[in-house]
Amino acid sequence: MDRTFVMVKPDGVQRGLVGEIVSRFEAKGLKLVGAKLELLPEGRVVEQYREHLEKPFFPGLKAYIMSGPCFLMAWEGKGVVAVVRRMVGATNPAEAAPGSIRGNFALDIGRNVIHASDSPESAARELGIHFAAGELVDYSRIDEPVLYE
User: Fold this and answer.
1) 57 appears as a binding residue in the annotation
2) I need a labelling partner for 50 at 20 to 30 A (CA). Which of 58, 63, 108, 116 fits?
3) Would you say 86 is a known binding-site residue?
4) Of 13, 15, 14, nearest to 73 (Cα)?
5) Mean pLDDT of the chain
6) 144: Cβ–Cβ under 8 A, 6 or more apart, which residues?
């Protein structure tokens, strides 16, 4: 089964949105296989956002991600990367569909509540940055037989 990385950013944690976000993914039928609340160290933030290192917004992004706790999650399911990206919505909340997480809970691209891996390759890389092998749990949800053919 596929896995992806999702992070509720400091604004989402501070606004009390973690439970709502987890509930949405669970209600969809995705399986939570890892989760933790952390203040991210600079090295992991830099590694997480390495493609943005040379961009002018990176210093602000780094400061923002390090400004408070983040809720880190590993989710599992068929086609989970694409499913989660649709549920999260467009990066710019002004363009996010109503009903998506960003469409419902974010107003500003610089405070857009949540990060989700954008490809299976990114998911594998990001999961490796934030979770050690033993931190992800393999188990079966009781409803899996009715979720998948």
Assistant:
1) yes
2) 108
3) no
4) 13
5) 97
6) 31
Residue 37, strand partner residues: 71
Q: Averaged over 68-73, what is the pLDDT? A: 98
What is the residue extent of each domain of the chain? 2-132
At residue 133, the pLDDT reads: 84
Q: What is the pTM of this model?
A: 0.96
Pair of tokens at residue 45? 């933030």
Does the annotation list 102 as a binding residue? yes
CA dist., res. 100 & res. 22, Å (int): 13
Residues 6+ away with beta carbon under 8 Å from 24: 87, 101
Mapping DSSP to helix (H, G, I), strand (E, B) and coil, where does residue 79 land? coil
What number is the average pLDDT over the span 102-125?
A: 97
Q: Is 115 a catalytic residue?
A: yes
Q: Which one of 4, 115, 126, 131 is the catalytic residue?
A: 115
- Cα angle, residue 5 at apex, residues 62 and 75 outer, rounded to 5°: 150
Residue among 36, 66, 35 nearest 49 (CA): 66
CATH class of 2-132: alpha beta
CB 56 within 8 A of CB 1: no
4-11 average pLDDT score: 98
Predicted confidence (pLDDT) at residue 145 exceeds the cutoff of 90: yes
* Residue 85 assigned as binding residue: yes
